[in-house]
Write a structure and sequence with these properties.
It is built from 3 helices and 2 strands. The protein is mostly helical. The mean pLDDT is 96.
Length: 78
């Protein structure tokens, strides 16, 4: 089990996500983002806008995902 925060995953807060795989933790972050979007949380909305810019370029998105996956892989087990 490894832990990453919302901020580490491109978000805006210190909420912690715990998962066995990067795919799991990425999904948790995505669900949290949806929740914050519904709540119209300003900090998360700004972070989402920054991610939209990255997502517009497939190469940039692949690079970003690769860096986050590598960061997850290097984290110690909880």
């Amino acid at each position: 089990m490894k832990t990453m925060t919302c901020k580490q995953l491109g978000g805006a807060c210190d909420m912690k996500f715990h998962a066995e795989t990067f795919e799991e933790i990425s999904g948790m972050s995505h669900d949290h983002g949806k929740e914050m979007f519904m709540k119209k949380d300003e900090a998360h909305l700004r972070a989402m806008q920054e991610m939209r810019v990255i997502m517009q370029d497939p190469e940039s998105m692949q690079e970003w995902m690769g860096k986050k996956r590598a960061e997850f892989d290097t984290l110690p087990e909880d």
